[in-house]
Design a protein that fits this description.
alpha+beta, 11-stranded mixed beta sheet, 8-stranded antiparallel beta sheet, 24% strand, binds 2-deoxy-6-O-sulfo-2-(sulfoamino)-alpha-D-glucopyranose, binds calcium ion
Length: 677
């Protein structure tokens, strides 16, 4: 935790006082956020793909921001920045893996201590129970589209229905049961339209008769842009035919269908209807018999048909919220916000997903209706960011923003069109290595230019003139015609980074969290790890903390258990018999430090009867380079059964080999961790 956050925690309660607004005057706040809903698919921004009449109402009767940007375009980081009002490098939630530090002050905590009733319903994604909410009912992880599970104030249950409808049902239920003498704040977080784009049954065919032309740069060749050449998010190459496009052979087996996270959750009649509908797509695919560019175009259409259809339910449910407010006389004194955690590529550059600092993924929708204080039909193009949300809502609520919030209230920008606002927004994306292989990068965007520095595996700069080249196809970095712009932008980037306290050293800590379902009271070793390398405690092998080396934080041996010349032989007794799909064991190889891979690894498992059987040999799934030398080897064993006991044995190679500086001396074996999934 940095000093600023610590300070605001201490000041927390005392520093917050409503600034003279009475309970009646204080507005209710309904914050509706969808997942990956990009502005190209909201008709008040762009009406070429879809009509979203209910979302549009917020802009028609309130304000629409055309230049709202995300500070780190993936889910959990954006959510953490919205709650804390601070950048990823300050709040610590820099990727989708780490666990949110709920001790920090957040928007909801401030409103709550100021007399608001607070709630969150839907996707949360911060890997720990929400804090600061009177009521929470969240989807575990990414959640499911059909008959999803929810965790309501800590209790898990399975709901019946379609996720977008269920989230709004629950939110309206909570609003209807609130204490009407106090204002309320609720975050309504949709799962849709997140991958793998599963529409409500009745909506599946909504766009089947629409032929959607691919964007102009769909067949982008990424010339002059190294990071773009390295990604894996191409509609043509990376979309999975079954999971994403629902192209399933009619005779496919249950197990293939079960890959549809959630199809097996459906009622049998619904599931039959689902299969019947998508069978038509399979037939279309067979009949079309296309390859190359034409097949890519078809894939794009199928992708868009499903993506857009999930938004129809979102828009309808926004309409339900607005009707509720009208019917209950709440529509004048309630701020209704619509946004998304970040944007999304709808085929631009040939892509789906987000992560890049390019426009389509960087831009967030932001529409706000608040008749008492915001005029109808206002459009604002000043630069705002997701870290501004919390200070802005606190401003409208008459509460003071804690010092830890780095964003600024945009209320003044709404009230005064001549207020120019800030000159540049700041961005920093950290999740690499990670899904879709987008390199780490940071940068700034002004109203005309964008400068990006890709670092970590590459060291590459990109500069765009957004007026001349809004699709960002032409990297101007190093172009002599733009040398002045380049100089100014570089200096500005430097000063913005200093202003927000993001130094290149503030990239991730040397360890990160991983998901490990092992519940064990202690590791029983035949020979304990060497005193010098214990991995930080008895629970080192199952604590969910693993090394996270980066060039700037090149890793350390802190998280590793080291064995000098000895085999590693550990046994666990799980708290209860647990169904385990896989066991992943991670070893370090850094021969310069006398650390070698084991000669052999065996994993044995047993049920309550303690009757051990050996698992089939491992598959190597990952080799991760450590920037300061060496590699991490992850090997994976299939379990697929309920287990109570597990034993892992790794054979040390004994001594350093011939020709090695330590020839004949004891070799080290490093392990961390044994991950049950
Ligand atoms: C899933 C998706 C990815 C997506 C991430 C992050 N794969 O892992 O395509 O980038 O979520 O999304 S999937 O095959 O499981 O659908 S985020 O919204 O949580 O940031
Ligand atoms: Ca998202």
């Amino acid at each position: 935790m940095n000093d600023k956050i610590r300070k605001s925690l201490i000041l927390g309660g005392a520093g917050i006082a409503s600034m003279g607004l009475s309970a009646q005057q204080r507005p209710n706040i309904i914050f509706i956020m969808s997942d990956d809903h990009t502005t190209q698919a909201i008709s008040s921004y762009d009406s070429s793909l879809i009509k979203t009449p209910n979302i549009d109402k917020l802009a028609n009767e309130g304000v629409l921001f055309t230049n709202c940007f995300c500070t780190n375009a993936i889910s959990a980081p954006s959510r953490a920045s919205i709650l804390t009002g601070s950048f990823s490098h300050e709040n610590g939630l820099y990727n989708n893996v780490v666990v949110f530090d709920t001790a920090q002050i957040n928007l909801s905590k401030v409103l709550r201590s100021d007399g608001y009733q607070t709630a969150i319903v839907g996707k949360w994604h911060l890997k720990i129970a929400p804090s600061g909410f009177d009521y929470w009912n969240i989807l575990p992880g990414q959640g499911s589209y059909y008959n999803p599970d929810f965790i309501k104030n800590g209790e898990e249950y399975r709901a019946h229905g379609y996720v977008t409808d269920l989230i709004t049902d629950d939110a309206l239920e909570w609003i209807s049961q609130r204490d009407t003498t106090r204002p309320f704040f609720i975050m309504i977080h949709n799962k849709a339209p997140h991958r793998n784009w599963m529409p409500r049954l009745n909506d599946i065919e909504n766009y089947w008769n629409t032929d959607i032309p691919v964007p102009d740069n769909f067949y982008d060749d990424y010339k002059g842009r190294t990071a773009a050449q390295m990604q894996h998010m191409s509609v043509d190459e990376d979309m999975l035919p079954d999971l994403d496009l629902k192209i399933i052979h009619p005779d496919s087996t249950e197990s293939l269908e079960a890959r549809y996270m959630g199809l097996e959750r459906m009622d049998s009649a619904d599931r039959a209807q689902w299969s019947q509908l998508y069978r038509l797509r399979y037939e279309e695919f067979v009949l079309a018999d296309e390859t190359g560019k034409e097949l890519a175009r078809l894939k794009y259409n199928w992708y868009m048909q499903d993506y857009l259809a999930t938004i129809d339910a979102v828009d309808e449910n926004v309409g339900r919220v607005l009707s509720y407010l009208r019917d209950h006389n709440l529509d004048q004194n309630t701020i209704v916000v619509y946004t998304s955690d970040q944007g999304f590529f709808l085929g631009e550059h040939g892509w789906f997903d987000k992560r890049f600092m390019y426009e389509e993924s960087l831009r967030m929708p932001l529409l706000i209706r608040y008749p008492e204080q915001i005029e109808a039909g206002v459009v604002r193009d000043q630069l705002v960011m997701n870290v501004d949300f919390a200070p802005s809502f606190l401003d409208y609520a008459g509460a003071e923003a804690p010092e830890s919030m780095q964003g600024e209230s945009f209320r003044g920008l709404i009230e005064d069109s001549t207020n120019k606002g800030r000159e540049a927004v700041y961005y920093h994306y950290f999740e690499h290595p990670g899904e879709h292989s987008v390199q780490r990068h940071y940068g700034i965007r002004t109203d005309q230019y964008k400068l990006i520095h890709f670092y970590y595996k590459i060291d590459d700069w990109e500069l765009y003139d957004l007026v001349q080249d809004p699709s960002e196809m032409n990297n101007l970095y190093g172009n002599p015609d733009y040398s002045d712009v380049q100089l100014q932008m570089t200096a500005r980037l430097d000063s913005v980074r200093r202003h927000y306290g993001d130094t290149i050293q503030s990239v991730p800590p040397s360890t990160k969290a991983t998901e490990n379902i092992a519940r064990v009271s202690k590791s029983v070793f035949k020979t304990p790890p060497n005193d010098k390398y214990t991995g930080g405690g008895d629970n080192a092998l199952y604590d969910g903390v693993i090394e996270n080396p980066t060039p700037l934080n090149p890793g350390s041996f802190d998280a590793w258990c080291g064995f000098e010349g000895e085999d590693m032989n550990v046994e666990w007794k799980l708290e209860s018999q647990t169904f385990v799909k896989t066991v992943t064991v991670r070893f370090l190889e850094q021969t310069g430090s006398w650390i070698f891979l084991p000669e052999d690894v065996e994993v044995w498992v047993a049920g309550n009867d303690k009757n051990y059987t050996e698992l089939p040999k491992a598959r190597q799934i990952n080799v991760i380079n450590r920037p300061n030398g060496g590699t991490v080897h992850e090997c994976n064993f299939l379990v697929q059964q309920g287990i109570r006991y597990i034993r892992v044995m790794a054979k040390n190679r004994g001594v350093c080999p011939e020709g090695h500086p330590g020839e004949g001396q004891p070799a080290w074996l490093f392990i961390d961790e044994i991950i049950l999934q």
